[in-house]
Amino acid sequence: MDGRQMTEIDRAFVSSMLLDRDQAADKRAFGHALLIVGSEGMMGAAVLSVGAALRSGCGLVTAHIPAGERMIMHVTAPAAIVDSDPGTAFSEVPDNLHYYTAIGAGCGLGRSETTVRALSSLLSLLRDSGQQAGVGTGRDSVVRRPGLVLDADALNIIASHPDLALSLPPGSVLTPHTRELARLVSGLAGVSDPKREPDFPHWKYPWAGPELDCVAALAGRLSSVVIVKGHRTLVCCPDIPVCTGMDSGTARRGPVKLYVNTTGNPGMAKGGSGDVLTGLITGLLARGYSPLEAALLGVWYHGRAGDDAAGLKGEESMNASDIMDNIRIL
Q: What is the mean pLDDT of residues 22-47?
């Protein structure tokens, strides 16, 4: 394990984090998640992420999607509120961001210049609000209005526009798969020589070596939780920044907490699985969990839903919709 201590995310570990559900509370007491997702021709990602958020236990879920695609959401997720964007992709930041306790963005957004500008505005507004601090499990020190989860095209946009990383609110949750992680690390480091890029796409458990140094450096530099999706998904959480640059050679060892998941199977290596995870973590963050708690609970329950789906349909035949349908927070 390269000298680092890993904590396994198992049933007993996540059960100790679960919040009670107040019998006298109304829906607003359980949080409001906003998903900024989808674009023309990419609404499947929006449906999957919003559907997963609806299964997280949060009280309300709003989908900010292109106006021309709103009927898809009304039909597939009638419990979700629809907030329409005038463009064919994300082009305008929704009003009244303070209404939401968590925001998830990136699934199926595309990377048009209009979307780049809109994402930049969103990050700046959230950073300037100063309403998110801390990434650990101590609820007393964490203000969750609103938390932020970024995936897919949101991460790819930041990789190609590294100045946007300066606006990323501390305590965000990033959910890259290994190829997105390679782009993100290389983009923020200013690396253009492929020979210097970490070989994340071929990175397998047990986690060790320079790739792990890079993940720790990324989490430390951004003061954010980084989830590396894949076989035995890794969650990396810093207490404080631990590095001065993105190159693993400049990273100094610090209090970076590492967790490895114990659920999931190869049948989850299908398009849309990551969209489900993003929606689930966003909903858990809205529900009242800290960024780290939402990440840990999200990856474990996501993997367990995948295991249940495989048990019903087999690893070959299961798909992301099956994972979404099998999410059960018990």
A: 96
